[in-house]
Amino acid sequence: MADVDRATLDRRAASRYQQLESSRVRQLYRIVAQRLNVDELGAQRLKSLYFACGYWRILLITRLSLIERLRLIARFMRVDWNVVHGHRPVEIAHVTKALAARPGAPSEVVVEAGCWRGGSTAKFSIVCAMLGLRLQVYDSFEGVEPLDAVSTGEWNFGGQYACTEETVRQNVTQFGCIDVCDFHKGWFSQTLASRSIGRPVRLAYVDCDLAKGTLEALSGVMPTLAPDGCVFSQDFHIMPVRKMLLDPSTWATLRVAPPRIKPCSVYMVQLTWPGKAT
């Protein structure tokens, strides 16, 4: 990736996030939510009325029958209505489309690094069950890891988004497919970064709000990433995460070529390695 490309991606990502924060839709949502005095789940339900259209890409997945596509969207919307989460329908649609691009190979897995209350976990587990994949879920279940020092542009999320493993399991059992899930508790430095996944990774979804955690997740995923595998980062709007992903030295450290980075939303990007596929 040329320097100009990295600079352009960086500038556009920062600009899109700023535009979102000051948009009329965001301002209107805040006014309505305040007047209705909704709680956290109520606020999400309110947003879902607007953002649910982001699932339209799932209708283009020809490997699934129309009935399967419609049922998938309905199950995703049920999660949206009942489990507080930090993603948008358009992002889940991108991940689902990438997973359904081809049949899963024997022993391939999907990795989720950071699950909060299990909303995304429930959705990914449904897709994995449909496609014959297992879902490996990594989380501390203690919230975001506290930082000893906060770098420029980074917010200290330490302790935020904490949720017990029991609650996550309950949500996935009720709204997803718990039978295809394996849970790995601990900081990424103690799990993903310290031992091999041991199976080919079809796709990884990283949402941990930190450059440090993202790098640790990548260090565990990259050695066994399938030739046509991909990684989604949910934190591209966070400047230190973005800078780390755009830095060629990151990929030199991981001993892989810099990826092609495709924006999927204001927050999420897809990382692919076209030259790696065979």
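Above is the first protein from milestone M3; the second protein from the same milestone is given next.
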Amino acid sequence: MVLAFKLVGVDGVAADSRDEVLEAFNRVTGAGGFAALPIEQLPNVLILTQDAAAQIEDEEIAWQKTGKFPLIVEIPGLNGPVKGKKSLSDAIREAIGVQI
């Protein structure tokens, strides 16, 4: 999936284990004692697969509560959406009442 995003100009990191996901997350956000990326390199949106997000759920929620950038968006992975999770379009429809 990272390769597909890279083809359209979006940088990414492939991470399989919880430690790899957490390290990548902390590098982008500056959380967990990591030095954050320089301000001009910080993304406005951090795209995580639902599988990756599930591995760092507590850290993701804590980050979202800070209200800082990057905004975190979860997308289904290659195996489809995680059962019980809303899709991005469902969340948008629920939040603003517009179907995309």
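Note on the second protein: The radius of gyration is 14 Å.
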